[in-house]
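Input.
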Amino acid sequence: MLIDVKLSKGLVELARACATVQQRSVSEQIEHWARTGKIVEDNPDLPFSLIRDILVADQEAASGTYSFTDQRTGG
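Output.
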């Protein structure tokens, strides 16, 4: 279901810049932020870095691509 939502020009421009880097549309970027914000609010005891890593792992699993790094060496 699509609906119209009024957003500030500043937010849309910020979303546009981030969307380009993340290879998302502006709508997809704002939806990503909304989903992430909800997860953060629903899990106040988890650090954001852990939440981000879980979301990345979910995306990798869905696409079938994995990026393994050694957290001790950064590579």
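The longest helix spans residues 26-42.
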